[in-house]
């Protein structure tokens, strides 16, 4: 068993599940979207990204690209949330934007997991 692959797979899947946990819920209600879960999703996504940096294969490049997309979208979502809170402009439109950005990051994470599983299956043969 390759411990490096286990660690990378763990963080890739954890990033996706945390992102889904934040995304799931009513689109326009902050009660269904926890700021600490968004923070955890950002941290785990950044860890997953750093684990993908050393891979010099074509698949590694694509996995890194999906992670960077997820990182950017989650960081923008957190930035929008912070600005809206401190400027007292939080409304359903802003909440929808935050959740939509995390949905885009979730799609990137799902793509990453599918590619990771596909690469694992391919390497078994």
Summarize the structure.
The chain is mainly α and 125 residues long. The protein has 4 helices and no strands. It is 81% helix and 0% strand.
Describe the structure.
81% of the residues lie in helices and 0% in strands. By secondary structure, it is mainly alpha-helical. It has one domain (3-124).
Count the helices. How many?
Answer: 4
What is the global morphology? elongated
Mean pLDDT rating = 91
> What is the radius of gyration computed over CA atoms, rounded to a whole number of angstroms?
16 Å
Distance between the termini: 16 Å
Number of strands: 0
How many structural domains in the coordinates? 1
Helix percent reads over 70%
- Biggest sheet statistics: none
pLDDT < 50 runs, ≥5 residues: none
What order do the helices and strands follow?
A: HHHH
Quote the beta fraction: under 5%
Structural class: mainly alpha
Write the layout of secondary structure elements.
Blueprint: H1 3-23, H2 35-52, H3 58-86, H4 92-124
Helix pairs in contact: 1-2, 1-4, 2-3, 3-4
């Amino acid at each position: 068993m390759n411990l490096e692959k286990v660690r990378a797979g763990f963080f890739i899947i954890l990033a996706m599940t945390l992102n889904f946990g934040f995304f799931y819920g009513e689109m326009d209600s902050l009660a269904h979207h926890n700021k600490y879960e968004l923070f955890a999703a950002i941290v785990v996504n950044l860890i997953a990204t750093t684990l993908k940096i050393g891979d010099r294969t074509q698949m590694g490049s694509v996995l890194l690209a999906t992670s960077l997309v997820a990182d950017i979208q989650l960081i923008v979502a957190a930035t929008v949330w912070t600005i809206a809170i401190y400027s007292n402009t939080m409304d359903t439109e802003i909440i929808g934007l935050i959740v939509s950005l995390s949905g885009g990051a979730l799609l990137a994470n799902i793509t990453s997991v599918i590619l990771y599983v596909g690469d694992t299956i391919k390497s078994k043969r």
